[in-house]
């Protein structure tokens, strides 16, 4: 059993705290006795004990005002991967993260915990039990991933024990749970449009889907174990449910739980990937004239048809991480949290 390390001060800021993961993180931090400040471009909720600041993390002055006297900062802001907007990803994930680091250093923040992504090593081909020492993707599957790589490098390289500025990156994968705006809503929308009939590939590919509370737990453990002498400084950590599951079994369980049919017919992976690539190119070419967003993007097809699961052994060893909620319970809780997405609702 690992001893729980109490931070000297329980004040923290969550950049991106209005988002799906951010809000779960804020709620959990409050339960654990932290005082929380949220910085986000939008305010989506009110919570007693939380101070909100609406602002863009690219705005140095706005950040300077908010991060004064804050010893611990969680940075979990990012544009949504589906936006596929190269300029926006560069501005927020790379330039904005540089600003976050500079401000943290200027005002004397002691710890910065970044939400990175396990996808920083994913190139669209199989990853089985991937460890953190896998090289960054040389050909990232999209702009989002490209900028998440640069963001992670910036944060980890900024770690400086001598100056008392400690950084760590958490790499979750396939986060799901109540209020997730991506996975379940996109899945249900695809099913409602009658497009969820096919399994891409043979359906045996194993993937990590990670319950949001486990991801939050990993973030807080990392913050609490990040100390000048600890192994965590300047390192990345996979946080998963530690229960790789067949991609299509997971999708089917969610769909059936919500009253929809599970996909049954198989389509060859390369065929679907080729079509998705063509549609993506067409959408990019026609963008000045018409805007259409294909459901099956090359990125989604790659994620749906390959193995991509990761080892969280390093997190277990260095911070005593263990998932708190099993995949079975997590799916039940998630399905129950979306009554409005049930078939016929
Ligand atoms: N959802 C997933 O499956 C995974 C997510 N991640 C990472 O987790 C983090 C959180 O993701 P989610 O909660 O799913 O996304 P989300 O879209 O729900 O939350 C992101 C938040 O960042 C805020 N934000 C965006 N641009 C901003 C800016 N310029 N200034 C201030 N705030 C800004 C948004 O308003 C939003 O509230 C992101 O860094 C994402 O890359 C990593 C792996 C998997
Ligand atoms: C239409 C169907 C074939 C697929 C529907 C589900 C997908 C929307 C999701 C399945 C895997 C998810 C995933 C992410 C977003 C939502 C999915 C594509 C991420 C790209 C989110 C950001 C990350 O950092 C990595 C995630 C990997 C898994």
UniProtKB/TrEMBL annotation:
GO BP term (any one): cholesterol biosynthetic process
Coiled-coil annotated residue ranges, if any: none
Keyword Endoplasmic reticulum attributed: yes
InterPro entries in the cross-refs: 3Beta_OHSteriod_DH/Estase, Lipid_A_modif_metabolic_enz, NAD(P)-bd_dom_sf
Keyword tags: Acetylation, Cholesterol biosynthesis, Cholesterol metabolism, Endoplasmic reticulum, Lipid biosynthesis, Lipid droplet, Lipid metabolism, Membrane, NAD, Oxidoreductase, Steroid biosynthesis, Steroid metabolism, Sterol biosynthesis, Sterol metabolism, Transmembrane, Transmembrane helix
Catalytic activity: 4alpha-carboxy-4beta-methyl-5alpha-cholest-8-en-3beta-ol + NAD(+) = 4alpha-methyl-5alpha-cholest-8-en-3-one + CO2 + NADH; a 3beta-hydroxysteroid-4alpha-carboxylate + NADP(+) = a 3-oxosteroid + CO2 + NADPH; 4alpha-carboxy-5alpha-cholest-8-ene-3beta-ol + NAD(+) = 5alpha-cholest-8-en-3-one + CO2 + NADH; 4beta-methylzymosterol-4alpha-carboxylate + NAD(+) = 3-dehydro-4-methylzymosterol + CO2 + NADH
Keyword Acetylation set for record: yes
Gene3D superfamilies from the UniProt entry: NAD(P)-binding Rossmann-like Domain
TM stretches of this protein: 270-290
Gene Ontology CC annotations of this record: endoplasmic reticulum membrane; lipid droplet
Pathway: Steroid biosynthesis; zymosterol biosynthesis; zymosterol from lanosterol: step 4/6
Compartments reported by the entry: Endoplasmic reticulum membrane; Lipid droplet
Enzyme superclass (EC): oxidoreductase
Membrane topology reported for the UniProt record: Single-pass membrane protein
EC number, as in UniProt: 1.1.1.170
Pfam families: 3Beta_HSD
GO molecular function, one term: 3-beta-hydroxysteroid dehydrogenase [NAD(P)+]/C4-decarboxylase activity
Quaternary organization: Homodimer.
Record-stated family: Belongs to the 3-beta-HSD family.
Protein name: Sterol-4-alpha-carboxylate 3-dehydrogenase, decarboxylating
Organism: Coilia grayii
């Amino acid at each position: 059993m690992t001893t729980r390390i109490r931070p000297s001060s329980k004040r923290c800021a969550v950049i991106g705290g209005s988002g799906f993961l951010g809000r779960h993180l804020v709620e959990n931090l409050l339960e654990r006795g932290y005082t929380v400040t949220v910085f986000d471009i939008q305010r989506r909720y009110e919570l007693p004990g939380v101070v909100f600041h609406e602002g863009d993390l690219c705005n140095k002055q706005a950040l300077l005002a908010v991060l004064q006297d804050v010893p611990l900062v969680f940075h979990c802001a990012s544009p949504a991967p589906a936006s596929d907007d190269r300029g926006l990803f560069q501005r927020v994930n790379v330039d904005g993260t540089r600003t976050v680091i500079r401000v943290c250093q200027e005002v004397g923040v002691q710890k910065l915990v970044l939400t990175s992504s396990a996808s920083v090593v994913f190139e669209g081909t199989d990853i089985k039990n991937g460890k953190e020492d896998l090289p960054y993707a040389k050909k990232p599957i999209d702009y989002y991933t490209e900028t998440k790589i640069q963001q992670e490098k910036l944060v980890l390289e900024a770690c400086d024990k001598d100056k008392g500025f400690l950084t760590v990156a958490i790499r979750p994968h396939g986060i799901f749970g109540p209020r997730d705006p991506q996975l379940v809503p996109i899945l249900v929308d695809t099913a409602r449009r009658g497009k969820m009939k096919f399994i891409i590939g043979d359906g045996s590919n194993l993937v990590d889907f990670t319950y949001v509370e486990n991801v939050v737990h990993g973030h807080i453990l990392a913050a609490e174990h990040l100390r000048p002498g600890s192994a965590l400084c300047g390192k990345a950590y996979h946080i998963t449910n530690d229960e790789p599951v067949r991609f299509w079994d997971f999708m089917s369980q969610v769909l059936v739980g919500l009253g929809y049919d599970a996909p049954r017919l198989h389509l060859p992976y390369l065929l679907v990937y080729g079509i998705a690539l063509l549609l993506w190119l067409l959408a990019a070419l026609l963008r000045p004239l018409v805007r259409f967003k294909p459901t099956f993007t090359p990125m989604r097809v790659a994620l749906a048809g390959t193995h991509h699961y990761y080892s969280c052994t390093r997190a277990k060893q260095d911070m005593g991480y263990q998932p708190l909620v099993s995949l079975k319970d997590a799916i039940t809780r998630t399905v129950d949290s979306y009554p409005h997405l049930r078939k016929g609702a």
